[in-house]
Amino acid sequence: MAERNKSSDDLKTAVATFMDRADKIVAHPLAGTHSTIKIVVTQDPESGTETAKLDRNLLPEEQWVYLATLMRSVIFLEQESISFNVLTNRIEREHEELRGRLKAGREGLKAWKKHVFVYSGLIGEAKVPLPEGKTAIQQVNFGPPGVSPSGVDLEMLSPDYEYADAYLNAQVWHSDNAKARMYQAAGEDQKQHYRKCAEIRVISAIDIVAQLRQWILDARTDGWDL
Question: Which domain of life is it from (predicted)?
Answer without folding.
Answer: Bacteria
